[in-house]
Amino acid sequence: MNWSFRKKFITTISYGLTTCWITLASAIFAAAIEPVSAEFNVNTETSAAATSLLVFGFGLGPLVWGPLSELYGRKWLILIPYFIAAIFAFGTATAKDIQTVLITRFFSGLFGSAPVTITGGVMADIWAPHQLGNAIVAYGVTIVGGPTLGPIIGGALCSSRLGWRWTEYLTGIVMMAQLAVDLLVIDESYAPILLARKAHKLRLQTRDWALHAKHEEWDVSFKELYQKYFIRPFQMMATPICLLMSLYASFVYGILYANLESFSIEYQEVRQWGPVVGTLPFIALLIGILCAAAVNIYNNKYYRRKLMENGYRAVPEARLPPMMLGGIVFTAGQFLFAWTSSPNVNYWPSIIGIALTGLGFTTIFQAALGYLIDTFTRYSASAVAANTFMRSMFSGAFPLFIIPMYHKLGLDWGTTVFGCIAAALIPVPYLFFVWGKRIRGKGKWSKDSV
User: Fold this and answer.
1) Final residue before a domain boundary, out of 157, 174, 189
2) 377-418: per-residue pLDDT in tens?
3) How far apart, in whole angstroms, are the C-alpha atoms of residue 199 and residue 33?
């Protein structure tokens, strides 16, 4: 894409913020669980389902927006659903019963998943391969930044006289404001659509009706799209690379949403901190995420060197060093948080555990995504759809069982369970770093990357 660096940078920031506000919406409601339960006379598990349903919408959205973006381009397939998601946020804010809250949250997630699904494609449209890694790192921070900032903002709103409904009013207002900015600064980036527009303009200017872009002649069938976005992602989950990488990324992403409840139990129930101060440990998570971004940017230098040595063909295994480190750090963070959660222990060790968890989470998540894209090349859209679906199912499920689990097992043993699972997953990137090329060469969808 022959845009200026300034235009590419502004586009990246705009899409990043667009994504940030909808991922923030997924977490800001965590602080509203108690007041919503009290207002509508339901238990906290029912109210927590409002978070889960929005994230489940994130999982189903790629099955819709992915194929449509290949037909109609990026810009409007992001902005129109995003507008509808903002409307549903206002619907939640004005809800008169718990059923309305749950339904509007689900549809807010379904339509709001459009930027989460498509923006990765926008980054690939506008950035050269040697620049793409850093752009994806910056964009990735916005994806995970929303769920870390959401509980802090939500806690402040719910403890003020504004109340829980303003978690949704604010979400809708910010999304609408971002939409207005996007309409001013964002242009279409999908090359086939741009060529089709150019061909249309030339036909009008030259009166030569034979001029057509290849995209205009693409007679895509529903069967083809169904195969690519509905069937193939689930088939790819049966391959060792897609299954293990998606499973690892989904597990750590599920822990991110489990933290929405575990932090409130640790710092508000156990340590008796206030509703605002009790959400401040999420800042430690954000610090860990930012440190992970620095690690990923540093690794991109190594990746570019390997890329040049390989004749500018992708080297998937060069994505894995941050993940190899991150798995160990993530596990250490889980165990440290687990066994310093007692009110008799100073809170700083648990805060450090949270920061380590954030660092490990982000390095694992971004490396897994990059490895899937490099491995499955022309089938990467299906691999990413599989990853997004599994990730959203995990993230939506965790808030449903995490409260009763922690109340039954305690924070120490409950988090130890997660730490043990994390420890069992540590070998995954090492396995693919050593034998990944051989495994890729035997795969139906991955052999082109060898």
Assistant:
1) 189
2) 777 777 887 888 898 899 889 988 888 899 899 999 999 999
3) 53
